[in-house]
Amino acid sequence: MASKLPDATKGLGAGGMDVEDGSGGGGGGKKVAGRWPGFVHFFFVLTVVTCALVYAPRFLSPTVPVDFLGPRQPSSGRLPVRVDGGRGNEGDALVLDNQVNSPCASMGAHGICCDRSDFNTDVCFMAGEVRTDAASLSFLLFPPQAPNGTANDANATVAEKEERVRPYTRKWEKHLMANIQEVRLRAARPDEADAHRCDVRHDAPALVMTAGGYTGNLFHAFNDGFLPAWLTVQHLRRRVVLAVLAYNPWWAGTFRELVSGLSDHHVIDLLHDKRTHCFPGAIVGTRFHGILAVEPARTKDNRTLVDFHDFLAGGYKDDSTPPEATQQQQQPRRPRLGLYSRRAALLQIAPLGVPHVARGCYEKATAMMEMQYEQYDAAANESSLVRKYPADDVVLRDPEAATRERGWDLTARVYLGGQNVSLDLGRFGDTLRRLHSRALRLPVAGP
Ligand SMILES: *[C@@H]1O[C@H](CO)[C@@H](O)[C@H](O)[C@H]1NC(C)=O
Ligand SMILES: *[C@@H]1O[C@H](CO)[C@@H](O)[C@H](O)[C@H]1NC(C)=O
Ligand SMILES: *[C@@H]1O[C@H](CO)[C@@H](O)[C@H](O)[C@H]1NC(C)=O
Ligand SMILES: *[C@@H]1O[C@H](CO)[C@@H](O)[C@H](O)[C@H]1NC(C)=O
Ligand SMILES: *[C@@H]1O[C@H](CO)[C@@H](O)[C@H](O)[C@H]1NC(C)=O
Q1: Whose CA is nearest to atom 4 of ligand 4?
Q2: pLDDT over 70 percentage in the chain
Q3: Using a 6 Å CB cutoff, which residues line ligand 2?
Q4: In angstroms, rounded to a whole number, what is the distance separating the alpha carbons of residues 385 and 120?
Q5: pTM of the full predicted structure?
Q6: Helices marked H in 210-328
Q7: Closest ligand 4 atom to the C-alpha of 380?
Q8: Nearest-CA neighbor of 365 among 151, 53, 117?
Q9: With a 6 A CB cut-off, is 381 part of the ligand 4 pocket?
Q10: Which ligand gives the minimal distance to the CA of 396?
Q11: Chain centroid to CA 235: how far?
Q12: Where is this region: Disordered (predicted)?
């Protein structure tokens, strides 16, 4: 059951090192499956550390808080994030789909609409009275009630066709998606209402997402899980009920701040809760804009990755300090790193053989955060692989060629799963100095 740490060597896609995000731009989709296939699911080495540093310092260091998430100056030309994420949900009809140019963006007050145009993800929307059917893992859409309480002639308005969707953002990765439960959506006949009486009535729509997939890995928890969920429902301003597949205590405990940042309501454990839940609408599946990406032009309210950062900062802000302590001013000052100024930089150490992968995961996101990205590529003599392979082995001599020859399996097993890096501090120091000089806008000191 539930999400577990993915096996580092199994279930990785095949393919070369080129990294593409396969975001598909919201329409059609680049055929990149097999190129950016599952490599990321065990960035235990440094990238996860980096990710954790940026997004969740608490995972790393409960005793020495490193506050990456402190207040951040709004960048020029953009207002600070509005708390009211969306429009049109105050008094107006419920707007479920916040995505520009989605076929579902203009759906009416009653109906089922699925957007399957994206390369990475399918999302379905149900507007109207929705009830769960636990036995078949279905969401049923009931026809609107006439003022008299009689059923309208709704047969004509909603197609009989049943929609099925697996709510995860890697739909091109078949073997993985097979493990994501399939949720069914269909229109119900009025006469089915008696068999599906509401046990729990919610006054907010449901978002169906999963705590499964690769969620056991931090990078994926954010990239495939929380960022997409945020993209999908941030405009609802927490007026949404998370109905979670593969729900488990680890997920709920580890990410409780994010869960309550997304929703004001209790989470529903969709596979184990056998009650009939009723909602004024439902969203099944989540949006995806690319690796750790938010494309402002694709959200109706021009959201950016900085807004997501602010969402995280809000969730993780430390308000556990008792008021007296704050007044005394005797607290040791917490270190505050980065992310304040637009000159901030993020330095990633890429182990031997994975510089493209490392860059593909974080470079774009770093730019979207208006920070400078710098990468330190470990050389063979810094890798523990020098003790495993003869010096002239292609694995050490030419990792790119080795990868081209032996594919993703080599990357997964050897470069990602099988090496440690000991930094050459001299060379690393040069990198740091270069970064520092650039940050100060000074000429780089020559050797
Ligand atoms: C609702 O009731 C009104 C008056 O009682 C009646 O005229 C109307 O036809 C009813 N509508 C339906 C859908 O039964
Ligand atoms: C709706 O469809 C069902 C099954 O096809 C039929 O029995 C029922 O009479 C229809 N209701 C109306 C109001 O047309
Ligand atoms: C989003 O950005 C576009 C282009 O910059 C602008 O035309 C539009 O008014 C913006 N929309 C909102 C809701 O701010
Ligand atoms: C390790 O390799 C790098 C790049 O090939 C080289 O610049 C560096 O001098 C080497 N360091 C040692 C200690 O051999
Ligand atoms: C990497 O370092 C850890 C901690 O020292 C060690 O347990 C592990 O076996 C090392 N792995 C390799 C491939 O050297």
Answers
A1: 379
A2: 69
A3: 153, 155, 189
A4: 35
A5: 0.71
A6: 218-220, 227-233, 249-254, 256-262, 305-316, 323-328
A7: 2
A8: 53
A9: yes
A10: 4
A11: 16
A12: 1-28, 315-335
